[in-house]
Design brief:
heteropentamer; A mainly alpha; B alpha/beta; C alpha/beta; D alpha/beta; E mainly alpha; A: two-stranded antiparallel ribbon; 2 strands; 73% helix; D: alpha/beta; Rossmann fold; six-stranded mixed beta sheet; four-stranded antiparallel beta sheet; 25% strand; binds adenosine-5'-triphosphate; binds leucine; binds magnesium ion
Chain lengths: 287, 234, 394, 238, 349
């Protein structure tokens, strides 16, 4: 009974991590970009949504919907103006650039919004729950999980059933040959980052409704997101969900033993998967 | 002239691989480029298709400088390549590999999915396989079909017989006349001189980054080729 | 007189603790403009909420700026590295805004071995201690009808370890007052899931939740508790609901959450620098900054009061030993209450370095816009008026 | 026998690149390998050097089973190789390329290797360019460097992969002379080459590969005379 | 007949300058203010960390984001030596190096299974795990952290001598000692890396960097080389961590295992200066220190400037500032080229 509850809550927590990780998975999978600013971009998007809610009095959902095209444009610009120019075989330049971006975003937000804890108000939804007999689950975590699945289904449809998705996969396989097919890899990367920013906005909405955020909170979950992506295997979005769930469940079970073990257990699950399968659970034919 | 290179040079880092190469390809023509390993044939193909970027005037397409364009822009002008080593996209199925060849340049022409399947019927059977799960020869067929999907004016084929069984090579070479019949000019890069001469109108021989022989395929003697290949008469 | 007296002040102006520092500029300006402030120069350094950085800037204040006296506040993450540095450097430091246990014990080499604890020569601290928290919290809970079962949320940080310590933390005091504590164990800050704690509390039939929790974690916990059907009668936690902004982020769910109160606009004390009452100080701050008053304002203000007082009495302001002596001899009433290192209410091992200010309990009440902090428990500091009674959550 | 391969096979996915190859090379022999493009010649070298591990079979060097031994161990035992596509250490000078090979392939202090390296450079006509960064070399010099670096490891068995391709006749003659000299010092040589006249002027036996299979091995004259070889290998009718 | 030389004029000049600098550095406490000594301590320790990270990433191709693990474990081992074993802090620093070695072995075993970005993230996770485990070590304060007891800090080996020598207060003597140790460490580490590059191993590292396949084929054991580099860097990073926290005298898991302080800033220093050279980290640390001193009082603006500079340098000078300088001037202060001298050899370069 208690173990079942722990399991269910862990799976739902995994949904949150998967949502954090989905955008990362996209850019990591397509262009091998280790984006250290991903967490800060989520926080940035959360402030954008918050502005919509507090300044214009929109509902969080509508505010997020409106923030999405803004974030898409931001991602496009970021990729075109900065990231495209440092991508290459060497992982260091993008690592340093995104670290720089992370620092700039954090401190820019601090200047703009102060260190106050903020929250996207979700009204009665915050405490609402659903009694499923054996376990009681919160509506909000359930929505988060459902959104993670929806995001992954949508991204998969895009990836596997559209010409754009074909171009994504081809570019990810081989940039040079993709160029020979008339694909401008840099344009593809810009679109991919734009789409990743749309997913980031969705993650930001749930991050902001679930708990407080402030400008410094971004990096804390970044490592879980990376773990989820790597556990899942490069480029596999369902793998990313699986990765998120593995970390989430490991955390709740670890905590059930002793809260000291909560975060440790998540990391140890990651290390264990890496020891057994160094390329993740669902690796691609080629990396 | 459909395609022309003028004093084309290319380098990998500090290493220079081409030293002023001039070649021409007329519309509808079939040209062979032969030469030993490392002569610079593939480098020439990469320079033409914008994989290696050069000064604009080094490559001309219908008289316009395209040497500095990206490979995507070159491709959209109707120059498609079958790269050395086939380079199929492993994440894509056979059919997706074909589709991606045509999705960025949609012009009317003889080639479409059905036409390619007709040219290489085996591909229709394997359409939902991953491209890399095929035999070498079938992969080569996919690579050629993929390039054809954009209905190019010029098809560059880099060592399409490499590592294939003679029967398969026969099948693949049998496809080239059909491609020409569709109106495209062809450049074949080959080490197998016999194969090359059999399909080409003209032949260039390269050695160490330079063109050492230019001739009509019908006229050229083995002596000449040997000299161009190895530097001196045998 | 010649040269001015140099005060060093290390403060987390950026980073997650920046809320503590929001009134720095306001208070320092007021101090320097006051009569007593004329002889002083204040050099402020930003610790960026980073303990490494705090130690570094403390060192640079001592070595490069050659300050006479160090002032520091804002949680053990900030006070401890600065105090340790000052002690090692032989520079006097006045510190506040950290319960004295994590401050004193946390700076000992082996916190687990009381026999090894040593007093400090140059480090002096005024605030309250866990025994005061216990008195205030139990006072509040006794106003309600509960089963006396308390659940604790203690993170693995300086505050959490001190509060959760089975020997020196809340537990013995709660036991003595007739409450029993369920402590599921230390968790890491910024955990995303509190199911384990909720389950443990439910299993133990807990009706009261307490702890020292950072704001995002409290929101996560409180949402999950409600989602999973855990409905305590009282939630009395430190840190998480210190600032009105943090309470506002909880929306309706913030109503009637309770916490200790170390300073408020209704504290009946006056500033020795400006003569303002607490209410006037709070109102002036709000007028000048456009932001609501917060508890740290009074304490930041009081740091400069104490500094002015000490340096006014010292025989030789350039001698560290003389300043330390003057600090030890302090006896004054600041805007946060009486400050005198006379050992009152402090166990012998810390009596030299620790002085306690009054502590009461308050409850956040939702009004039309925002929340009011209403004092509901003042048994241990009756001079601070109570404005209401503790109300149960359910 | 210095080298012995027993039923060695290697596949890349469905493609069998080396198909049940069995061959023994006596100490001091010079063996030539020919075969069409993609026949698996370079792969055979990779199997002998340990850059690629076989799926099946057994490889023996100097009487020791080295089937699974890592590449660097085999180098130290005396297997030296050149790469078909020259792979110099581009950031190092020609001399440093050799020094690295000498210091690690033979094992020893750098200072003791200087004369040996200089001698090899002289023999391979690279001495003039000793202090030139390898990344800037021409193709010809890269091929020379391949040979020189392989020699610097102090090999008992020297594997040469198409080092004459693209050389002029004069250069080719010089190269043949160099290889003969090396062979004369009783170094065993296996040489993959398309330039048959050069190859045949050095080797004692010729091995023909097609589709990963050995389709003939024997004296060069016999092999060159066999119809099968002429058809398969010399696709260009002679 | 033939000779190998690595000497160049710039190299000889550098060697002399370095020697003079070291001697001056040793004597400096006699004249310099405490502030200067402390600034130099900061510069020297950051430089040591930067050289070590450069050894890993620049020479060994191992982009680790987890070096804070070794800083932290080294520092904690030093504290354990002092507090639990009663060692003198100077000896306890050595314990820091040992602890780092012990941690590095399983870390390498695990992380070497991973490539590229996976390796980077893997090392980061290991550092986090180490931090979380140390945070459970209650005897050393758990998540709270702990301080060095005053009897330990006031009894550090050699401080009495320094007090007598320079006539300074105890705290200043401690600074001087720490500074000397930092100077020793940076000289040994930088000198060691330079020596490594001029030894056989240096050739091997360069060869592996250029072409792993070819390196193996001439007998270079790329795997062993990675191990060697990783372990050396770990031990020295552990020693540096211990020294840094001896100077701070206070430790907590968050401070000791801070990814920003001990890895991100270090990467910043190396990459801004120029990776893969000895000069790069030196240039980088100077830039970093100047920025910090000039801007640190501007809080978030300082950090934003730092971030923007990181982005700008990567966009416009991807080889770092030293790369820019040496490309223009052809200058190499620490020459490693082995040149063959003798008949028939062209000048070349
Ligand atoms: N990416 C590269 N980097 C460095 N050098 C290269 C690169 N690609 C090719 N080269 C070198 O450039 C020269 C010409 O190579 P290229 O591939 O053009 O020759 P090729 O005639 O196509 O030979 P092959 O018959 O082997 O395909 C060779 O010496 C080769 O080693
Ligand atoms: N790593 C690999 N993965 C997949 N296929 C490979 C690999 N290496 C080689 N091959 C394939 O194995 C076959 C034999 O290659 P190999 O290089 O041994 O031929 P070769 O006889 O040396 O040819 P060449 O004369 O062109 O040098 C080719 O079809 C090649 O494409
Ligand atoms: C850390 C302290 C300054 C905070 C205090 N414990 C509180 O109640 O908020
Ligand atoms: Mg080629
Ligand atoms: Mg080959």
């Amino acid at each position: 009974m208690m173990w079942l509850d722990t399991l269910v809550q862990g799976i739902l927590l995994g949904g949150l991590y998967a949502l954090f990780a989905a955008g990362l998975s996209l850019v990591f999978g397509i262009m091998r970009l280790v984006n250290l600013a991903h967490g800060d971009l989520i926080v940035f998007a959360a402030y954008l949504v918050l502005i919509g809610v507090t300044l214009f009095g929109l509902s969080p959902w509508l505010a997020a919907l409106l923030a999405m095209p803004v974030m898409f444009a931001f991602g496009w610009l970021l990729q075109t103006a900065v990231l495209n120019r440092v991508l290459g075989k060497d992982i260091l330049p993008p690592l340093l650039v995104t670290f720089g971006l992370s620092v700039v975003l954090q401190n820019g937000l601090l200047e703009g919004f102060s260190a106050d804890s903020r929250r996207i108000p979700a009204g009665s939804l915050e405490g609402a729950s659903l009694d499923l007999g054996l376990v009681t689950v919160g509506v909000m975590p359930l929505l988060t999980f459902a959104s993670a699945i929806a995001a992954i289904v949508a991204l998969n449809a895009l990836f596997y059933h559209t010409a754009l998705g074909r171009a994504f996969r081809a570019t990810s396989d081989d940039v040079v040959t993709a160029g020979l097919m008339g694909i401008e890899p840099k344009r593809i990367f810009a679109i991919a980052t734009g789409i990743a920013m749309v997913v980031v906005t969705l993650a930001a909405l749930y991050l902001g409704m679930r708990a407080n955020f402030d400008p410094s909170i971004g990096p804390a979950r970044l490592i879980y997101a990376f773990e989820a992506v790597i556990i899942g295997g490069l480029g596999s979005l369902w793998g990313t969900l699986a990765g998120g769930v593995i970390i989430g469940v490991a955390q709740t079970f670890g905590a059930a033993v002793n809260p000291e073990w909560q975060i440790l257990a998540g990391h140890i699950a990651f290390l264990a998967v890496m020891l057994l399968k160094p390329r993740g659970l669902f690796p691609r034919a080629v990396d | 002239m459909l395609l022309e290179t003028r004093a084309l040079t290319a380098s990998y880092g500090q290493f220079r691989a081409l030293f002023g190469v001039d070649i021409t390809v007329a519309a509808g023509e079939c040209v062979a480029i032969i030469g030993a390993n490392g002569a610079g044939k593939s480098t020439l193909m990469r320079s033409i298709t914008g994989v290696i970027r050069n000064e604009p005037g080094m490559v001309l397409h219908r008289g316009e400088p395209i040497g500095a364009l990206s490979s995507a822009e070159v491709m959209k002008r109707g120059i498609a390549m079958v790269p050395e080593g086939r380079k199929l996209f492993p994440s894509l199925t056979v059919e997706e590999n074909l589709l991606i060849g045509g999705q960025m340049r949609k012009v009317p022409g003889p080639w479409n999915l059905d036409a390619v399947y007709e040219l290489f019927p085996i591909l229709r059977e394997r359409r939902n396989n991953s491209g890399t799960a095929l035999s070498g020869g079938q992969q080569q067929m996919v690579a050629i079909g993929r390039a054809l999907m954009s209905n190019p004016e010029l098809l560059l084929c880099d060592e399409i017989s490499l590592g294939l069984a003679p029967v398969v090579i026969r099948d693949i070479y049998a496809a080239l006349p059909k491609v020409r019949a569709g109106g495209a000019a062809i450049v074949v890069v080959e080490q197998d001189i016999g194969k090359a001469l059999a399909v080409a109108d003209r032949v260039y021989c390269m050695m160490e980054g330079r063109v050492t022989l230019t001739a009509k395929a019908a006229d050229v003697s083995r002596q000449q080729i040997h000299a161009a290949y190895f530097g001196e008469a045998a | 007189q010649g040269a001015k007296i140099r005060l060093g002040y290390v403060s987390p102006q950026t980073g997650p603790l920046a809320g503590f520092a929001e009134s720095d500029a306001y208070n320092i300006k007021a101090f320097l403009a006051s009569e007593a402030g004329k002889n002083f120069e204040v050099i402020v350094k930003d610790s960026q909420s980073n303990p490494n950085r705090a130690a570094e800037v403390a060192k640079s204040l001592i070595v490069d700026d050659e300050i006479n006296l160090m002032l520091v506040g804002s949680t053990p993450e900030n006070t401890n590295p600065v105090a340790t540095t000052c002690e090692a450097e032989g520079v006097p430091v006045i510190s506040t805004m950290a319960p004295w246990q994590p401050w004193f014990i946390g700076q000992q080499g082996n916190p687990g071995d009381p026999a090894s604890w040593k007093p400090f020569e140059f480090a002096y601290h005024y605030f309250w201690g866990l025994e005061d928290i216990i008195a205030v919290y139990t006072g509040m809970w006794k106003q309600l009808d509960t089963n006396g079962k308390v659940g604790g949320l203690f993170p693995n940080d300086a505050d959490g370890n001190a509060w959760g310590d089975p020997k020196n933390g809340l537990k013995p005091g709660l036991d003595a007052a007739g409450f029993s504590l369920t402590d599921p164990g230390r968790y890491q800050n910024l955990s995303d899931d509190f199911t384990a704690q909720v389950n443990a509390f439910k299993a133990a039939n807990v009706e009261i939740v307490t702890g020292v929790v950072i704001p995002p974690d409290f929101t996560t916990f409180w949402n999950q508790a409600r989602q999973q059907g855990f409905k305590p009668k009282a939630v009395t936690v430190a840190k998480a609901i210190l600032f009105p902004q943090s309470v506002e982020t909880l929306g309706d769910a913030g109503n009637n959450l309770s916490s200790e109160v170390w300073w408020s606009a209704s504290h009946p004390f006056k500033s020795t620098l400006t003569g303002q009452s607490s209410a006037e100080l709070a109102a002036d701050y709000t007028a000048k900054s456009g932001r609501p008053w917060t508890q740290p304002i009074g304490f930041v203000h009081s740091l400069f009061e104490v500094a002015a007082n000490v340096m006014g009495r010292v025989s030789d302001p350039t001698k560290a030993e003389a300043i330390a002596e003057a600090i030890a001899a302090t006896d004054m009433t600041t805007v946060v209450g009486k400050v005198a290192w006379n050992g009152a209410g402090v166990p012998p091992f810390a009596a030299k370095n620790v002085c306690k200010t009054p502590l009461v309990g308050g409850q956040w009440r939702k009004k039309d816009s925002g929340f009011d902090l209403v004092i509901v428990e003042n048994a241990s500091a009756p001079e601070i008026p109570a404005a209401g009674k503790m109300e149960a959550l359910v | 026998m210095i080298l012995r391969l027993d039923n060695v096979s290697k596949s890349y996915g469905a493609l069998k690149v080396t198909d049940n190859v069995t061959v023994a090379v006596p100490r001091g022999e010079a063996l030539g390998i020919i075969g069409p493009n993609g026949a698996g010649k370079s792969t055979l070298f990779n199997l002998i050097t340990g850059n690629v591990l076989p799926n099946e079979g057994r490889i023996e060097f100097l009487g020791r089973d080295v089937t699974r031994a890592p590449a660097m161990e085999r180098v130290r035992m005396g297997v030296g190789r050149s790469f078909q596509i020259p792979q110099p250490f581009e950031g190092l000078t020609v001399f440093e390329n050799l020094l690295t090979a000498a210091a690690f392939g033979r094992g020893g202090r750098e200072a003791d290797m200087v004369d040996a390296c200089a001698h090899i450079l002289d023999e391979t006509e690279l001495l003039k360019k000793a202090n030139v960064v390898a990344g800037t070399l021409s193709l010809l010099d890269r091929k020379r460097l391949e040979l020189a670096r392989a020699l610097a490891t102090g090999p008992e068995l020297l594997l040469l992969d198409e080092i004459a391709g693209g050389l002029t006749e004069g250069e080719c003659k010089a190269l043949v002379a160099t290889i003969r000299a090396i062979h004369a010092r009783s170094t065993t040589i296996i040489w993959i080459e398309h330039v048959l006249h050069a190859l045949n002027s050095v080797v004692e036996r010729l091995l023909v590969l097609d589709f990963g299979r050995v389709i003939g091995i024997g004296a060069p004259d016999e092999i060159m005379a066999s119809r099968e070889v002429r058809e398969i290998y010399l696709g260009l009718e002679v | 007949m033939y000779k190998l030389t690595t000497r160049t004029r710039a190299g000889t000049a550098t060697a002399i300058a370095v020697l003079v600098l070291i001697l001056a550095g040793l004597a400096l406490p006699a004249v310099a203010s405490r502030g200067a000594i402390q600034d130099l301590f900061f510069i020297l320790t950051m430089l040591t960390l930067a050289q070590l990270w450069n050894l890993l990433a620049g020479y060994g191709g191992l982009v680790s984001v987890g070096q804070q693990a070794f800083v932290g474990i080294g520092a904690y081992a030093m504290f354990a030596g002092v507090i639990l074993l009663g060692w003198n802090p100077v000896w306890a620093i050595l314990l820091g190096g040992l602890a780092a070695l012990v941690l590095a072995i399983p870390t390498a075993f695990f992380a070497f299974r991973l490539q590229g970005a996976y390796f980077a993230i893997g090392t980061w996770v290991i550092a986090e795990v180490t931090r979380l485990l140390i945070a459970q070590w209650k005897t050393l304060g758990g998540g709270t952290g702990t301080s060095l007891p005053r009897e330990a800090t006031s009894n550090i080996l050699g401080t009495d001598l320094i007090r007598a020598l320079f006539g300074v207060r105890e705290a200043a003597a401690r600074d001087i000692l720490a500074y000397w140790l930092a100077l020793l460490l940076v000289v040994v580490v930088t000198g060691g890396i330079y020596w490594l590059q001029r030894s056989r191993l240096g050739l091997a590292l360069a060869a592996v960097r250029d072409n792993v396949e070819a390196a193996r084929s001439v007998g270079v054991d790329a795997g062993r080389l990675k191990w060697a580099v990783f372990l050396i860097a770990a031990v020295a990073t552990g020693l540096t961590g211990a020294l840094i926290f001896l100077q701070t005298a206070r430790i907590s898991p968050d401070a000791a295992f801070a990814v920003t302080d001990w890895t991100a800033y270090v990467i910043f220093i190396v990459v801004i200066g120029g990776i893969g050279t000895i000069e790069g980290p030196i240039v980088g640390v100077i830039v970093f220190f100047v920025l910090r001193s000039a801007l640190a009082d501007y809080g978030s603006w300082y950090l934003m400037t730092l971030g923007l500079i990181a982005i700008a340098v990567m966009l416009f000078a991807p080889k770092g500032l030293w790369g820019l300088i040496s490309a223009r001037s052809g200058l190499h202060l620490f020459p490693v080229r082995r040149r063959l001298a003798g008949p028939k050899i062209e000048g070349g370069n």
